[in-house]
From TrEMBL, chains A, B:
Cited PANTHER family: LACI-RELATED TRANSCRIPTIONAL REPRESSOR, RIBOSE OPERON REPRESSOR
InterPro entries membership: HTH_LacI, LacI/GalR-like_sensor, Lambda_DNA-bd_dom_sf, Peripla_BP_I
Naturally occurring in which organism (per UniProt): Salinarimonas ramus
Name under which the protein is recorded: LacI family transcriptional regulator
Ranges for region Disordered: 1-22, 328-347
Length: 347, 347
DNA sequence: GTGAAAGCGCTAACAA
DNA sequence: TTGTTAGCGCTTTCAC
């Protein structure tokens, strides 16, 4: 049952050629005559031979393995991205090795060691919560890194995000256009660039409309924290309560909506409007029907893959920082005000 | 910036010992004196040396890589499982290489080749839709396989599932106890063992109660198909419409509920009761509050990991087929009938 | 175009 | 306990 895997020498013997002829047959750019190539292929087929990628990587220095570092998969945006990443890399002859990591310093070390141990050709950091040091240490060890859905102030690191500042601004415009004036924000983790950019874009544009948010609470990208924040928003005087909430991610927005409807008994959008960020598939499900900023996962993944592959091919090229814009998708969790109090328009 | 990674020879020179001493220091069971060990560790630390896992695997025949083959990550059960798998393997010094695969024959070949190319130590098939042949060919190539959340009639393959037959039966009991008599089933893909087992357990137990389902439609584990099935169920005469639906997975159940509420204008559970299967986190969210059969993901993952590791350690051990039972979690999508027509009880 | 030979970084006998 | 010596399976000069 357990046939030992044949190696290139077995194939060479069977084909009546040298071992290097076998290697050449399986090396894309190498020079082999059609006849030997045919003999080798035939022998390989009969024996069920496939070159050992690991052995090859020893000599070429390319493992054809890419690491994906991610903190959690609760937020549907990440599994969706993971699926796309895996398919994209598979099509390029690469494969994705998964590393789960929290913020803990200990984790950072373990993950780093793992990355280096497996000689990964590149790293995608899809987590918002992993320490910055990790990316820097990978780069300084010669392993290209691309940050996905986050960026750092460090300009030496490649990063692909949506245009979070513009997205936040777009939400502000929309809520104002809907006639809202008492607006709250349950933000993404303020330790993450993504959370900060969305908040800043939102708050600044609100200010341009002459509006200050009634409250800004950090939702930590966590359902429970976001739910608690929602309760806080509605615990005070009636006058201080928001009539619209911008939530820093769809994942949290669902928790906010659940709390609003089922715990506080409020109607969406009649009593409170809600806007999210990401446009994960679930946002389009009728149960939520959430107005949200679309993050173009396809485009972001493609850009990330391309950037990483370029840096793998040539480590000397300059890092890229890409911002891929996405539209606001208006759904049923917000409703244009029939008679906007202030008549503010979008520009 | 790009320091070349040091190798064991560099460390040996620096520590003033032989290269094998370095190897021994990093090989758990090897015999090294405390003094050389200390010297090696110091030198390694200074140089930032870590053994190359790939080179090691060439000689040991263990890559410390496990493949996870999966078809899609839409169904929340799979990302949750993936996260647990990755963490569990990381704790054991293994890592997960992801392979996305559809049913297509072409995919089966590509995935198989990928698995063999990377010399993975073991394979977890978490997909319900990948061809049976793949698992068999891995095993016959000497790569241990464990099926996750599915099984095959082939007794030579290890498999870990929940007790799908018992789970289906439990749903039948519950719906009957709730007083329902016009019961429909939107099943999981009938090409999958999981889909068939749940259906059979359900239908057989219903029969024991003297009830025949009003309809059984294959939902293919797909939201759109399940939604279409729901429309079909309610397209006929009022008398032929179900007052309860058992759906073969939570993922489909959400689509069924959305269709029921927002397209057909029906109330759950008043007009129609709905039961799912899996108990993914979302099933507990108030927006759905879905009665469902709990699949113990933790237990299933642990059992799968353990089974796979055992077979990696000793390929001659017999395959295990494990069924891990989970309870029915009753939530708001079903309601006990105040006055059950037939007075059927659960046993 | 082809084979011989050297080595990628490591582990595992084998002597010492 | 230690160093020396063979490889693991492959790619890549280098002569031919």
């Amino acid at each position: 049952m357990t046939k030992p895997q044949p190696n290139s020498m077995d194939v060479a013997r069977r084909a009546g050629v040298s071992q290097s002829a076998v290697s050449r047959t399986f090396t894309p750019g190498a020079s082999v005559s059609e006849s030997t190539r045919a003999k080798v292929l035939a022998a390989a087929e009969e024996l069920g031979y496939r070159p050992n990628v690991l052995a090859r990587s020893l000599i070429t220095g390319r493992s054809h393995i890419v690491a994906l570092v991610v903190a959690y998969l609760d937020n549907q945006f990440y599994p969706v991205a993971l699926e796309k990443f895996s398919k994209a890399f598979q099509a390029l002859g690469y494969h994705v090795l998964v590393f789960m990591a929290s913020n803990a310093d200990e984790d950072v070390e373990n993950v780093l060691e793992g990355l280096l141990d497996y000689q990964v050709d590149g790293v995608i950091m899809a987590s918002v919560s992993i320490s910055n040091r990790l990316a820097e240490r990978c780069e300084s060890a010669g392993v290209p890194v691309v940050l996905f859905n986050r960026r750092q102030d460090d300009e030496r690191l490649s990063a692909v995000t949506s245009d979070n500042v513009a997205g936040g601004a777009r939400v502000a415009d929309h809520l104002v256009a809907c006639g809202h004036r008492r607006i709250a924000h349950v933000s993404g983790w303020s330790g993450s660039s993504t959370g900060r950019d969305r908040r800043n874009g939102f708050v600044d544009r609100l200010a341009a409309h002459g509006i200050e948010p009634v409250a800004i609470l950090d939702g930590m990208y966590d359902r429970d924290v976001a739910a608690a924040a929602t309760r806080t928003l509605f615990s005070g005087e009636a006058a201080s309560r928001p009539d619209a909430i911008f939530v820093g991610s769809d994942h949290m927005a669902f928790a906010v909506m659940d709390t609003l409807r089922f715990e506080l008994g409020l109607r969406i959008p009649d009593d409170v409007a809600v806007v999210g960020y990401d446009d994960v598939p679930m946002a389009g499900w009728p149960a939520y029907d959430l107005t949200t900023v679309h993050q173009p996962a396809d485009g972001m993944v493609d850009a990330t893959v391309e950037t990483l592959m370029a840096r793998i091919a040539d480590k000397t090229i300059a890092p890229r920082i890409l911002r891929i814009d996405g539209p606001l998708v208006v759904r049923g969790s917000t409703r244009p005000h029939p008679d906007p109090t202030g008549g503010h328009s979008r520009d």
